[in-house]
Amino acid sequence: MSAAELDHHNATHGLALPDLSGVVPTCTEVRAKHCIAALEEELQVMRQERGTKQRKTTYYISQGQVVRCMVALYASIEDLIAEDDCRCEVDWEESTTDQNCFQRGYIALVHALLWIHEKLSELDTDDAKDMLKKIKKGVDAAHSNNTSTLKDLVTAWINQSFHLSNLLKSDDKQSRGFTHDICGKLLCPAEWDWSIRDRTSDYIISENSWPLFVYENYSFSSDNLKKGLFMSKILVQAFKATFTSPSSTKEADGDGDGADILENNRCAWHALNQVKFKTCMASIINMRKVTPHSIAYVVCQVQFALSSISSWCTINGDFNYKAFWNNIVDFFEDVPGPVTSRRVTTLLEWWTRKVFSKNHHKELTPEVVSKMSVTALAEQRKALEDAAFDSD
Q1: In the prediction, which pLDDT does 250 show?
Q2: In the chain, which ranges are continuous DSSP H helix?
C-alpha cells in the first residue's frame, strides 16, 4: 500500500487525529455509554457504603439493648467513659461514691460489650459520638420494650400465682401499688407486717428495705435475713422474659433442667439460613452467666411493674430507684470477706443454672463417651464382625 493509499485508509477507517485541544472525537452515543457506566459504578460504591453504614447502625443499636440491663440503669455511657478516662490521668484514691459507681459501670460495660473499649480508642471524636448516639437508640428502645413487656407479664403472673378473683388488668397501673392487697404485700418492706398500713414516720417505704417480692416464696425470716434473698419466682420469670424470651418463663420452677434457650436460638437462626430472626438479648452478646447488674435491673423493673406509677422516675415518694439499684449491686459486689463472697458466688451460680440451664457437654470427654451405650454397642458390633472374619 502506497503512502497516499495509507493516508486515505486512516482518514476513512481510523481514529480522527486530535486537534490542538487534544480531544479525540467520539460520537454522542459512545460518550453517553461512558457516562452511564461511570454513574453506575459510582452508584454501586454508594450502595456499598450505605449498606456498610446501615449494618454498623443496626449492630450498634442491637448491642445497645443490653446497656441498661447489664451496665447501669441511670448513668449515661458518656459518664462511664469520662470516669475511666479521668482515672487514667489523675489520682482516684479520693473518689466519691458516685465516681466509684461510674467506674464499676464502665467495667461492666467493657465486659458486656467486649469490643467497645478498643473501638473507642480507634475512632476519632466525631465517629465515637456517632457510635454512642446509635448505641443510645438501642438503650432507650430496649428499656421501653422491657418495661412494657413486664407490665403485662407481671399482671398475668400475679393473677395466676395468687388466684385472684378480682383480676389485675395489664392496662391499669392505678389499681396496683399499695392500693392493691397482693401488690402492696409484695412491695412492702420484708421486715414489716403488711397488715399495718399506716404510713407513719416509723413505716416509710424507701430503698433502705428489701421488698418482700425479692424473697423466695415471698417469705422472710428476721433471724436469717439472707435466706431466700433474690431467689423469688417472679424475679426468675422477669429475668427470663427480659434476657431469653417470654415463653421461657414457663420453666421458672425448674432447677436448670429446661431447654437451652441460647443454643436453640442459634440453631433457629442457622436453620432459617440467617434470614431476619428475632434474637434474644442474651444471644446478642453471647451472655452465659447472670451478673449482679442484670439482677439489679430486673429487680427494679419488677418493683416498677408492681407499683402504681405510670412512668419511670428516679424518685417515687420516699423511694429512690437509683439508690435501690446501687444497694442491690453493693450486695453482690461490696462483700465484707471471703465467706460472704462464696455465698454470693453460690447465689450467682444458682441464677445462671435457673436461667441458662445445665449443660454438661464439656464434661463429655472421650473417656466418658467410650463407656456410653452408643460407643459400647459400636465396639460390640465391630468385635462380632472381627470374630466372624477370623472364623472364616
Answers
A1: 84
A2: 3-13, 28-64, 67-70, 77-89, 97-112, 116-122, 125-162, 181-187, 233-243, 261-271, 281-284, 292-306, 321-333, 338-356, 366-370, 373-391
